[in-house]
Amino acid sequence: MSTMKSVVICGASGYIGQYLRRSLEADQVAVRTIGRRDSSDATWSDEQGVVDVLSGADLVVNLAGRSVSCRYNKRNADEIFASRVETTALLGRALARTPQPPSLWANASTGTIYRDARDRPMDETTGELGQGFSVAVARAWEQELRDAPTPIRKVALRMSIVLGAGGGAINPVINLARLGLGGKMGDGRQMFSWVHIADVVRAIAHVFERQDISGPVNIAAPFPVTNDEMMREMRAVLGRRRGLPTPGWMLELGARVIRTEAELVLKSRWVDPAVLAETGFEFQYPTLGSALHQIARETPRGLLPVALG
Q: What's the whole-model pTM score?
């Protein structure tokens, strides 16, 4: 991150944003923030303030967006859509007016944009986009980034499921395993593409340094596993010999109880980090075992807090 002196993070209050901010500041990179709260350096409601905060930064990373861990009723769906598409549109307008714009605009997207894939991995050039609400959100999100009237380099970070201690997607899975329900989910054959939070930050730095990278970039570890393998590795790390499987109907029912969508675990995500591989990126946590052992070392005993949508 040597050439990076200042970074603007939009959506810095979320799990990824907090981790990114801590990592950058530990490397003596100045961080400014744009968000909904007055504690941010600029708020979304003040477009001129956004322009001022962006000016002179080396990089802007937009992670803004309401959590998708909720029921997709109309109100939540509208919020999920607007929180991504409208902030991206506003950022595009502000960047077009910024006197000294950053050299790179890295905007969050999602590996869920690809179809349910059990036959082959989906890379950035040959991957096939899917159908449904979450895919429609991702397409609109990326379209807004592409259409933004600013000449700077743009990258859509198609993130797979982000794993790390203290938050993200791992806490509910740890809880299930600790409750004895750590068996396969559904038929267990759906692919589970994942990435460790440390490698998300390192990939963003890599994309910044490599000026030949633009467009969509899959942020996913090179060795995805099936859901069955993922749960088996989770049980092994937590010292649980057995785990009851959760059939699809039970997941649908449980998802209703905790106000989320079963699609989050039943969809087969098989995301191939081809652009990162082709440009020489090396993962700190390439295998799920290495990631889970690191997470387990930093995770307290007992049931963990889970944010309900």
A: 0.92
